[in-house]
Fold this sequence. Notes:
- The complex is a heterodimer of chains A (about 350) and B (about 100).
- By secondary structure, chain A is an alpha/beta fold.
- Chain A has 2 domains: about 230 residues, 3-Layer(bba) Sandwich (FAD/NAD(P)-binding domain), CATH 3.50.50.60; about 130 residues, 3-Layer(bba) Sandwich (FAD/NAD(P)-binding domain).
- In chain A, about 30% of the residues lie in helices and about 25% in strands.
- In chain A, α1 runs parallel beside α2, α3 runs parallel beside α4 and α7 runs antiparallel to α8.
- The mean pLDDT of chain A is about 90.
- The longest helix of chain A is centred in the last third of the chain and has 18 residues.
- Chain A is globular and about 65 Å long.
- Chain A has a 5-stranded parallel β-sheet, covered by helices on one side.
- Chain A starts with a strand and ends with a helix.
- In chain A, β10, α4 and β11 form a beta-alpha-beta unit.
- With about 100 residues, chain B is mostly beta strands.
- In chain B, about 40% of the residues are buried.
- Chain B has one domain: Ubiquitin-like (UB roll), CATH 3.10.20.440.
- In chain B, β5 and β6 form a beta hairpin.
- Chain B is about 5% helix and about 25% strand.
- The longest helix of chain B is centred in the middle third of the chain and has 7 residues.
- The interface between A and B is medium-sized, with 34 and 34 residues.
Amino acid sequence: MGTEEAVVIGAGPAGLFAAYELLLAGADVTLIDRAAQAGGQLVKQTHKFFGSKEHYASIRGIDIRHRLEHALEKNGDGRLRTLYSTTVAGFYADGALACVKAERYYRLHPEVVVVATGASERTVAFAGNDLPGVYAAGAVQTLMNEQGIRPGNRALMVGSGNIGLIVAYQLMQAGIQVERVVEAADEIGGYQVHASKLRRLGVPIETKTTIKRAFGTNQVEGAEIWRLDAKGEGIAGSEERLTVDTVCLAVGLSPLVELLSQLSVDTRFIPEFGGVAPVLDETYMTSRPGVFACGDVANVEEASTAMVEGRLAGIHAAGYLNRQIPRRKEKIQALETSLRTLRSGPASEHVRKGLRKVGEHA
Amino acid sequence: MRIREHPILRFKERSKIAFTFDGRTLYGEAGDTIAGALHANGVKELSRSLHLHRPRGFYCAIGNCASCHMTVDGEANVRTCITPLKAGMVVKTQQGKGRVDGY
């Protein structure tokens, strides 16, 4: 028997919903996040969500977070313990978690763990990619939308997935001129609606184009972009110089699987998810009984799907604890249908492919 | 470098906080992170790479990437992108990997 009933690691969209379902089922929940507040990356998402009402459509990420926190308090009934500003530094073979908060060490030994640690932003190789002024797109979002500070005055966005398109638009909202959005693939990666909003502001989006190098002495003073041929090689002579002080990279995310790797659960390299992801069964459980994973750490996707996955993982984790949930089967079916709907669009093809690969392995 | 007008968000001017960066007195605002306050002052170079000593700024802003490590109040390898700024902090560009005693 553990010292805690359920621990959820990560208070982003997936973790918050996993905690919510565990609380609804009557479990005692410890919710841990290394940030000082809950919300994960929702805290910087000023755009409105898509989908139907159940997926928080037309609500901004920053507002969803407050609703979730409120829902947790309401249903917590004194059974929710939050440990924020707390880093889970170790996950040991006996199931113990080593946590660090304000230079103090805490050892937890939960019966079930839901890992919802999210993902980290990737980079891409080009000369000068280490210069100050080259940022991950999400970093620029944090700086602008959370802290109210501009990264610079003129920006180049590399990558046209939803993050690239949304952050480019938010740069314009914060008064930063986006000179160009470049996309190495043949087509824009994100939703058309985001691309259209940018085009209306006069921001050109160029496909089959990427950054060749960033230059500058101690920080970015400019960037060179070039066209790519059918093989994805840069075309000599197609270079164009842009005067920018900010280069944003929106080139994908990698699951933050470190804690699960410490536990040696089965993982698999899934290119569609940007790295190594845990192999899960249909209950979101890893190869280690009682350890569940959901959200970006399981498969890099959208906040809307992470929220549904979080609920499913929470319900299954409660089931593992033998907690009774009224109308459990119907609830699971409805959530699974909801996930399929969210993933039905052409922009989710890579997710479907990645999930099939994980499924083949499980 | 601060955003004062925004169509969705509101950023009010908050109380000023003085701190030291490599011997210079700079001002941030209450609620800033250390790296954010430096950025608002136009300081983007936060560290140097270990081997080639190339300039480094922050990359991820959420404490993942280690690119923003600085020595703060004698403590090395502080993740300045997520550490709140406090009045009177002594922030230094770190040389090398940083030791437990802060140098």
